[in-house]
Amino acid sequence: MMMNVLVIILVNKVEMLLNTVKRSQCHKEGDVKMSIQISDEIRVHIRWLVSRDMREVLEIEHKSFEFPWTEEDYHRCLRARNCIGMVAEYNNEIAGYMIYELCKSKIQLLNLATAKQFRRLGVATQMMAKLIGKLSSQKRNRITFEIRETNLVAQLFFRSVGFRATQILKDYFEEMHEDAYFMQYRYTPEPTETEYDKAHNRIIQYLS
Ligand SMILES: CC(C)(COP(=O)(O)OP(=O)(O)OC[C@H]1O[C@@H](n2cnc3c(N)ncnc32)[C@H](O)[C@@H]1OP(=O)(O)O)[C@@H](O)C(=O)NCCC(=O)NCCS
After folding, report:
1. What is the pTM of this model?
2. I need a labelling partner for 111 at 20 to 30 A (CA). Which of 23, 39, 147, 172 fits?
């Protein structure tokens, strides 16, 4: 009898020990995954697009879109005074690019792509952060973009950086009779310290 009790206690102890090991392995896996996510992110240098970048940009463009912009489309667009092209560079290689138009009260994003080998590494997120940094409450306070209804990946990307779809534009892309989602990012100023002070919680007085 005594022996049986001892065996049961021993088995329980071993089980507990195994569970602890399993849990700590899970935790380790989680940690590893987190560290992969962090180390997977690459830091790109974002600069103006210049004419010697065009070959690489066009290559990414053709690999990224069913209906790519031609070189002439790029030239026509970038000749306009308010149209700007930027590239994200990593180790002297072009990892991505964006084209946008500075309008009076908003930034209109016209084109954005990341080279396939650089995707899911935070490249487009960094380009968007750069663009968002140009917004202010006084001047341009939003970024807008029309995205194909079928481009789910890009919709997920824009959602992840804070864009919201606010409208459906019927037949926006004529060549395929495809609808578009009108997506926009709105500038929200950081609350100042005084605004924090003003944000007074009305139930806190009942908690003490
Ligand atoms: C859309 C696009 C620009 C995203 O570029 P990217 O550099 O890979 O994006 P990021 O690495 O910054 O992704 C940020 C987040 O967006 C979301 N996202 C990006 N790609 C995704 C995918 N394939 N599936 C699901 N979510 C995705 C995720 O939330 C991702 O964060 P996570 O990787 O931590 O999960 C890129 O996929 C691309 O060039 N696509 C083809 C061109 C295109 O459609 N351009 C946009 C319309 S002009």
Report:
1. 0.79
2. 39
